[in-house]
Amino acid sequence: MAFGLFVAIGLALMAGFPVAFTLAGVALIFAGLGMLTGHFDPVFLEAFPNRIFGIMTNETLIAVPIFVFMGVMLERSKLADQLLQSLAQLMRGTPGGLGMAVVIVGAMMAASTGIVGATVVTMGLISLPTMLRKGYSPEISTGTICAAGTLGQIIPPSIVLVMLADVLSNAYQQAQLRMGNYSPETVSVGELFAGALVPGLILVATYLLYIVILARIRPGLMPPDRAEGDEQVSVRRLLVLASGPLALIVAVLGSILKGIATPTEAAAVGAMGAMLLALISGHLTLETLKDVVYRTTRITAMVFMILIGASLFSLVFRGFGGDELIADFLTGLPGGVVTAMVLVMLVMFLLGFVLDFIEITFVVVPIVGPVLMAMGLDPIWLGVMIALNLQTSFLTPPFGFSLFYLRGVCPDSLPTAAIYRGVIPFIAIQVLVLALLALWPQLVTWLPGVVYPG
């Protein structure tokens, strides 16, 4: 029944039904069948109201709509457009300068917004026409934009990491209870932010290094811009434009890492800062505010409906003994925790083709997370590996979400095959960084140990 539940949900999702209602609806149908056949104890469903109340009173999850509001507001303030123009002007004459500017601005907007789809679409609209007009190859242009846009997965502060931290904390507590620790520790959002910061910076640096090397080896793919102009003016303008988003990132991330503010409080500060930046740039109008609130409400409603559906699914799955089956399967694999981790990462990578990060976080992580952490894996390291793995999945042809986002704003004359070819080098870079984190977990665990000693 547990296996059939997974298969039925997969078929329903491929048929196009909404994820949240598919999770809840199929779970209820199987629970009913299980009660009729005597394979499901309805007492499991009695815990569902408590799950809902737990979601409503979860202080960490309150940060989600506020971070979404901050990201949407920054997107509407047109800062990315102005930053890209100024940085590209500053780096004119440098081989690959425009490509490097796209990565840097993409990283800053990713850290500010944390919404992958919005970042990819925004960067595609403002930078793709410029890159093509300057003579950049379609492959380099689209690959750089997709890779820069998906940095919102891993660079904090990110709503993805906020949700993942909450799920990992619950899974880590379950893992400790299984191991006989009845005073379990938790995983905080700040710890996951600290763990993701160094890998995120490594990823940005590796992207930039690739663009620099490729521009030297094959300058025809990324010709330098020879336009004349006053470079000093560009420096001043760039500093003015960048100071706002950078101050916002430092205020939000720094206050969380220093323990000055909770994630929810820091998100509120970020939301007010985003409104202030939009006001300074002249884009904060009543119409803009209504649009931002509407979009924030839609995204937040989608997130929490998925969370509610996933909670019901996990109860039914546990009622059929699915969590015990998964635990027995993973612990019984030859090779122990290494084989189990590789298998889980491969399954999540494939699920990333058809499910968004939110569904995978709320459905898959609660099932496999306790088992892997009970086998000895560090929760912060596991969370960063999951985030980076799914970021790679979202870039991988032919089903990567980022590819679809960019395809929607590309001119019809640009073939889809060019987008697919363009992201391959960046996928290889992300796999390389994944391998580095697997070989040297200290790249993830060092900073949390320094910021949160003991």
In short:
The protein has 454 residues and is an all-alpha fold.
Question: What is the global morphology?
Answer: globular
Rg over CA atoms: 22 Å
- Helical proportion, percent range: over 70%
Q: Unreliable runs, pLDDT <50, ≥5 residues?
A: 228-233
- Beta-strand percent range: under 5%
Report the span from N to C terminus. 43 Å
Number of helices: 21
Structural class: mainly alpha
Q: Can you summarize the main beta sheet?
A: none
Q: SSE order in H/E notation?
A: HHHHHHHHHHHHHHHHHHHHH
- Mean pLDDT rating: 85
Count of strand segments:
0
Structural description of this entry:
This protein is mainly α. It has a domain of 293 residues. Helices cover 76% and strands 0% of the residues. It has 21 helices and no strands. Helix 1 packs antiparallel against helix 2, helix 6 runs antiparallel to helix 7 and helix 7 packs antiparallel against helix 8. It is globular, with a radius of gyration of 22 Å.
Topology:
Layout: H1 2-14, H2 19-37, H3 48-56, H4 63-76, H5 79-90, H6 97-113, H7 116-133, H8 138-149, H9 159-178, H10 189-217, H11 231-257, H12 263-280, H13 286-319, H14 322-331, H15 336-351, H16 357-363, H17 365-374, H18 379-395, H19 401-407, H20 416-439, H21 442-451
Helix pairs in contact: 1-2, 2-13, 3-13, 4-12, 4-13, 5-6, 5-11, 6-7, 6-8, 6-10, 6-11, 7-8, 7-19, 8-20, 9-10, 9-16, 9-17, 9-18, 10-18, 10-20, 10-21, 11-12, 13-16, 14-17, 15-18, 18-20
Q: What are its keywords?
A:
454 residues, mainly alpha, 21 helices, globular
